[in-house]
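Problem statement: downstream parser choked on a complex file, so we are re-checking the raw output for the MF3 run. The parser issue turned out to be on our end (a line-ending mismatch), but while we're here, posting the original submission so the record is complete.
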Amino acid sequence: MIILKTDEQVELMRKSALLVSKTLAEVAGMLKPGITTLSIDQMIGTFIRDHEAVPNFLNYHGYPFNSCISVNDVVVHGFPGKLTLKEGDTVSVDVGVNLNGWQGDHAYTFAIGDPGPEVAKLIRVTRESLYKGIEKAVAGNRIGDISNAIQEYTEKQHGYGVVRELVGHGLGRSLHEDPQVPNYGKRGSGPKMAEGLVLAIEPMINMGKKDVFTEDDGWTVRTRDGKVSVHFEHDVCVRKNKADILSDYSLIQAVEKTNANLFLTY
Ligand code: MF3
Ligand code: CO
C-alpha cells in the first residue's frame, strides 16, 4: 500500500533526512586512513542520539549496528568492525534515523585517498545516475521511469553492473514502505507516482558484473567478482514538475572538500 504524505509530514521527513545528511557530514570530517569502521559507527550512534533521534537501522530485522559501512567489494549492509580504512578504499556509509516518528535513510560513498581513475569514475557515474533517476520522480511518471534512467546510464552507457537483489523503497513512518524502486526496469512500467510520495532512491552499481552474494552473517552483501561497488541514496518527495530532494549532499560535500584524506569526484 502506497502512503502519500501531506506537506506537513514532508517537512517532518525533511528534518529526518537532513539529520542523516548532518550525520554523514560528521563522518566526512572524521574519515582518514587507520580509523576503524566501528569507531565511525559509534560516532554515528552518539551523534543521532544527541539530536533527539534514534538510529533506526539498529535492531531492524536484527541488524546489529547503527549504520552500514560497506568498503570496496561490499555492496551494502557492511558491518562496522575492527577493519581499518586505508588509502584507496571506497567507503559507502548508509545511515538511518527515526526523528519524531519519521524515518530518514540515505547514503554517500567516499574515497579515502586516490582510488584511481576507474573507481573515481564509477563513484561519479553512480552519483550522477541517482540524479538521473530523481529527474524522473515527478507526478504522473511511473517507478519504472526512475529505474530505467538509472539502468540506462550505468549499464548501457558505462557498462557497469546494476545490482538486482536490492532496491530502493518508499519511506515514511516505516523504513521500508511501498513501492519498491529497482535500479533496473522498463520505462512506463510499475506504479504511477503522485505528489507526496516519498522515496529512498539508491543505486548500487558494480564496476564488474551485477552478481552479488550475502555472507554467512546474513547481511554483508559482496560482489561475486570481488570488484568495487558504489552506493548513493537520497530521500526525495515526488512533486509536479521536479522532485523535492529532502536529504542534502551539499552539507556532506562542504566537509568532504576540507578533508585532505578524501578524494573528490566532482
Ligand atoms: N538503506 C538501506 C535500506 O534501505 C539500509 C537498511 S540497513 C538495515 O535497505 F539494517 F536497516 F536493514
Ligand atoms: Co534505503
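For whoever reads this later: The chain has one domain: 7-256.
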